[in-house]
Specification:
- The chain is of the alpha+beta class.
- It has three domains: 292 residues, Beta-lactamase (3-Layer(aba) Sandwich); 84 residues, Lipocalin (Beta Barrel); 92 residues.
- 35% of the residues lie in helices and 20% in strands.
- It is built from 14 helices and 22 strands.
- It has a nine-stranded antiparallel β-sheet with strand order 3-2-1-14-13-12-11-10-9, sandwiched between helices. It has an eight-stranded antiparallel barrel with strand order 15-16-17-18-19-20-21-22.
- Helix 3 packs across helix 7 and helix 12 crosses helix 13.
- The radius of gyration is 28 Å and the shape is globular.
Length: 585
């Protein structure tokens, strides 16, 4: 009888155990990404996604993680195509601007320790007279402004992303001083992504912590997280292993049509404002950094309340309640709102993104600059698209016509090189009869079938070539996340004028070259034909135009004061007049 009871007990216990196992397995199987993919299918879904796009693949390293650890790691393609070296766990990639997350984490650590007040004027933490190009010195600039990229700083030609090793400044202070940007806008008026503003924040961390930034990051982020295969130094002097492994990575551009492919070789440069974009690491280390943000006891901070504070909104799209930034972390409006940061260098693209609600995160690294199919597409695979968000197909309001020519605020807005803002990153929208938009310049169509689907007043889903982006448009300002764009009252005129001047200059220079060649031939042949006074005038006028054009080009490389701007303006006017006279005679 005892044996029977014992046997029955064993069966019952086994059944109970088996039932618990089944329940746990069921719970695991039911766990899904926001897009609806079960965790067990994540690997297969990513495999299929990449296989469909393998014609454009050099290499791609993907890590999916949550609060419990790594859910999936995958390595695809080659770190060195020519030598058949496949990407693996030891492959070192560049983070690019994803490095900025290290800066904002450092700032929040200093805030937690009471060393930084996020609402205080940043000049409280800088040496006297450190900022020399403030157009609005009476306006307070806070760390929140630096984190939200709305302190008013314009772009700078000095922040060289492709510097030779010998050109790297000795200290971060030297780099920030040398690359200082002119403050072109009132504080808080516009969002304009700023590498310099981020480097300035890193310098403030140096000032408040008493350590150089490289040492600080290694001691306060890399070491606590066990990121042994990471470097933040612009020359990788803080990690020799990373320096060596980076030499083994080759960079490419791989497109659907092989004839368009490009090979960039090692493509390795130093970053002057290194806190803004110089980090390098393996996928494993980038994944560890991402996991720290979603782990229950965040190892980056002494209290989880600091992480909670970091996840709070610090800027919004227009006057809406849609978050744009959270203490330096950019939002991505997908089916769910995610936080993180992407990055680009001359040879690599990176993306680190996580959903603070579910805790699901993803890290993607590629050895292709400007890569979007994997770094932008795989997150959508996991998080869903904005079109899938509940309630985003119910707007029944009238869509306004947003046609116009938009110019970016992330440019040289003031100074001698201000004309350059009209030469690139122009966004001329023309509405079509079917409600879509086209990008047209001087009658030429560069993109067609672009959709701006209204989802709320002034809020749109911007759809182009299979990609979606949240945009906010009101009162002539088009907010596209990290960069505001302003509708020009003069339309295409500034763009046409600048490029017209350049093209006209090219014609004049070609004419000058032809005339000089003819003159040399005549001299060699000892021709009786001599230059008349008119010929000499034409040559001298075109020479002046050419020299003026060179002067103008040189000044495009630098910002200058009022005197410099006046000189360039007079030079360009003189060059234009002389050029017209030279062609008219």
């Amino acid at each position: 009888m005892k044996k029977i009871i014992s046997a029955l007990s064993a069966v019952i216990l086994a059944a109970a155990s088996f039932g618990t196992s089944l329940t746990a397995s069921a719970e695991t199987a039911e766990k899904q990404t926001p897009s609806g993919i079960t965790y067990s299918d994540i690997g297969g879904s990513i495999d299929s996604y990449i296989k469909e796009r393998e014609a454009g693949l050099a290499s791609c390293a993907v890590s999916v993680f949550d609060a419990d650890g790594v859910v999936y790691d995958g390595y695809y393609g080659y770190a060195d195509i020519e030598n058949d070296i496949a990407a693996n766990s030891d492959t070192v990639y560049e983070w690019g601007s994803t490095s900025k997350m290290l800066v904002w984490t450092s700032v929040m650590q200093q805030w937690e320790r009471g060393n930084i007040d996020l609402e205080a004027d940043i000049r409280d933490y800088l040496p006297d007279g450190f900022l020399t190009k403030l157009q609005y010195p009476d306006e307070k600039i806070t760390m929140i402004n630096l984190m939200s990229h709305n302190a008013g700083f314009q772009e700078s030609f000095y922040e060289n992303q492709e510097a030779a090793p010998d050109d790297v400044y000795d200290t971060l202070e030297d780099a920030v001083k040398a690359c200082e940007c002119w403050q072109a806008s009132h504080v808080g008026d516009y969002t304009a992504y700023s590498n310099w503003g981020t480097a300035l924040a890193a310098y403030i961390v140096e000032q408040t912590s008493g350590e150089d930034y490289v040492t600080y990051v290694n001691e306060n982020i890399f070491e606590p997280l066990g990121m042994e295969h990471s470097s933040i130094d612009p020359l990788q002097r803080d990690n020799e292993w990373v320096a060596q492994k980076r030499h083994e990575l080759k960079c490419y551009c791989r497109l659907a049509d092989p004839k368009d492919n490009l090979d960039f070789g090692e493509c390795r440069y130093a970053v002057q404002l290194f806190p803004a974009g110089a980090c390098m690491s393996t996928l494993g280390d980038l994944s560890k950094f991402g996991q720290a943000f979603v782990t229950e006891d965040c190892p980056l901070f002494e209290n989880d309340s600091t992480r909670d504070e970091m996840f709070k909104a610090t800027s919004y799209f227009g006057d809406s309640d849609v978050t744009k930034t959270c203490h330096g972390l950019w939002t991505e409006q997908r089916k769910v709102q995610t936080l993180g940061h992407g990055g680009n260098t001359g040879g690599c693209t990176a993306e680190l993104e996580f959903d603070p609600i579910s805790g699901l995160g993803i890290a993607v690294l590629t050895n292709e600059p400007g890569e979007t199919a994997f770094c932008s597409g795989i997150p959508v695979l996991l998080y869903g698209s904005l079109s899938d968000r509940e309630g985003y197909g119910s707007f029944d309001g009238t869509a306004e016509d947003i046609s116009g020519v938009y110019y970016t605020r992330r440019a040289i807005i003031d100074g001698a090189a201000s004309a350059s803002q009209y030469m690139g990153q122009i966004f001329p929208l023309s509405k079509n009869d079917d409600g879509t938009y086209s990008v047209k310049i001087l009658g030429f169509t560069f993109a067609d079938g672009i959709e701006f689907v209204p989802v709320a007043p002034h809020q749109y889903i911007y759809k182009d070539n299979g990609r979606e982006k949240f945009v906010y448009i009101k009162d002539g300002v088009l907010e596209l996340g990290f960069m505001d764009n302003i509708r020009s009252s003069t339309g295409i005129l500034p763009f046409a004028s600048i490029w017209g001047f350049i093209l006209f200059g090219i014609v004049c220079l070609l004419t000058l070259i032809i005339k000089l060649i003819v003159h040399i031939i005549r001299k060699i042949r000892k021709s009786d034909k001599r230059y008349t006074t008119a010929d000499k005038q034409i040559l001298s006028q075109q020479m002046i135009f050419a020299v003026s054009g060179i002067i103008y080009a040189v000044f495009l490389l630098y910002t200058a004061g009022a005197g410099g701007r006046a000189f360039v303006t007079v030079s360009c006017i003189l060059a234009t007049l002389l050029g017209i006279v030279s062609l008219a005679i």
